[in-house]
Fold this sequence. Notes:
Elements: H1 5-22, E1 43-50, E2 54-55, E3 65-66, E4 71-74, E5 80-82, E6 88-94, E7 97-105, E8 108-117, E9 122-130, E10 133-142, E11 147-153, E12 156-158, E13 163-166, E14 169-172, E15 178-181, E16 184-185, E17 196-204, E18 207-215, E19 231-237, E20 239-244, E21 247-252, E22 255-258, E23 264-266, E24 278-285, E25 291-300, E26 306-312, E27 314-319, E28 322-327, E29 330-334, E30 339-341, E31 353-360, E32 366-375, E33 382-388, E34 390-395, E35 398-403, E36 406-410, E37 415-417, E38 429-436, E39 442-449
Parallel strand pairs: 1-9, 2-3, 14-18, 15-18, 22-25, 23-25, 29-32, 30-32, 36-39, 37-39
Antiparallel strand pairs: 1-6, 4-5, 4-7, 7-8, 9-10, 10-11, 11-17, 12-13, 13-14, 15-16, 17-18, 19-24, 20-21, 21-22, 24-25, 26-31, 27-28, 28-29, 31-32, 33-38, 34-35, 35-36, 38-39
Amino acid sequence: MRSLRPQLSALMFCLGAALMSACGGTGSALLSPVAPSPVSSGATISGSVNSTSIAPLATNSFGTMDARTVTITVVGTGVSTTADNQGQFTLTNVPPGTVQLSFSGPGVSATITISGVGPNDRVQITVTVNGSSARVDSEHHSAPDNRGEFSGRIASIDATARSFRVADTTVKVPTTATIRHGSTTLQFADLKVGNQVEVRGTKDGTTITATEVKVENGGDGEHDNENDHSTSELEGTVSLQTGTCPAVTFTVQNTKVSAATTTSYEHGACAAVKNGARVQVKGTKQTDGSVLATRISVEDAPSTSTSELEGTVSLQTGTCPAITFTVQNTKVSAGSATSFEHGVCAAVLNGARVQVKGTKQTDGSVAATRISIEDSPSTSTTSELEGTVSLQTGTCPAITFTVQNTKVSAATTTSYEHGACAAVKNGARVQVKGTKQTDGSVAATRVSFED
Length: 451
């Protein structure tokens, strides 16, 4: 045994030297540096998962599920994690491109898709799951060069600052930024609370300065999709009403509304939906942008109060007692129930000055209950004209011609001086005396030839 000790000592020395040599030739192998871990080149996706069927551990109760039982997996990879008791999670080394995330657990089996994930992006999302369905409430991409993408629903708008908030992020929209919905360019004023938007821009903390804002749907979650038949609500004043109940159409807020036999009414009936009425409409949005009303609530029927007008009669038509005319650009209708003061129905002629009292109709016209004639146009006022004859027509003695742009009619009762009826020809210079008619023409009693 004593003879073997030198050999064992030599062997141990050689072994130690070999180990030192393998580790670099100097120092202890136990103190040699550890090789660095490989650097990740994948994206990081973090966020929170919420659901009516999932609750944090601290508030877990009957009918809810501990968020720690929800597993989040990048589909097609081995990247997976479990949410903490607040529903928070982080996935690292996520491959770039279009990513599908799977959410699984007791009572939960749903997937979402995230597009445009860059190799080193940091993506923050908020997801709501409910059974087999899931939706992305907010999505924020940030790249190493501070470029960012963010999507979500507008919660508030500051028109003065040209900014809006989505979740905890403020989006500033400079005048150079593009705002669009599909191929349509929009203005900042067109943005509405509830718009689902996708924002591209530069990120600085919790603020993004946008270079592009893409509006994906209308306010209050109302999708502008040609296949979207979601419920739509309108409130405003009825205009352009046409049709016969129950099949009527009208416009509210520049939107065409159609009512049918299936439409129900509150605080009124179909007949109350007239121009000027204020209504609330609930219905189904159609592919052409119109709304098929399921319910119409009449808030304020158009006024049928007494209306008073004063002015000169024009556009008079009809036969007494059923006549219509215009005063102050308002159509007035008279009938057998209309009473007259200081004159009769026949005195309501063009040019007469009248006072009208009546009931305002839904179309804006007035049904006259009383008409007071202040000044009737004279039908016996003598008129004198002097000038050259033009536009002569007819055969003597019944001829018509124009003098000073006034139509003159001659008849068997007309007398002539310095000539006869046959001399009244275009180019002749005449003096005319006669009676002014209600239409402004003159019935000649005497025609005198000057030349």
